[in-house]
Amino acid sequence: MNGRPKIKIELTKADKILEIIGLILLVAFWCMTIINYTKLPEIIPTHYNGMGEADGYGGKGNILILPVIATILFIGLTKLNKFPHIFNYPTKITQENALEQYTNATRMMRILKLIIVVIFGLIAFQTIRFANEQTTGLGKWFLPMSMGLIFIPLIYFIAKSFKTKK
């Protein structure tokens, strides 16, 4: 990490779009949660097992934890993304490859921020539906879908990092 160039990465149009979509989804997540809060029963699911079945219950105030955590992660990753020179990279960072490596890494972080908001939003959405007896849980599809949403972009961007000129 010592000696890595500190470069200010200019946002491309795609990067700006990712940031805006993430922010819009985060605001929509908060709106959905607040609008539905008063309609929730006093006891709601607070935990789901690997099959997407509710296996823990608590007060309806627990639904607010999801957008709070998503917001903290979103803000934290946004701040962290301003310092790509401190990230871990699978290749040595040089003056020649720094811009390409940093751009790749910061794009990955933007996509992961978006995915985090989507996953937390889906958990809240399904929890609200479950509490209102519109579904029986997250569904068997939720865990594999979440893992795919996280790991497919990670694998893609890490592979791209290896292919970047040294």
Automatic annotation (TrEMBL):
Keywords: Membrane, Transmembrane, Transmembrane helix. The keyword Isomerase does not apply. Residues 24-70 form the DUF1648 domain. It comes from the Bacteria. It holds the Pfam family DUF1648. The chain crosses the membrane at residues 20-37, 57-77, 111-129, 141-159. This is DUF1648 domain-containing protein.
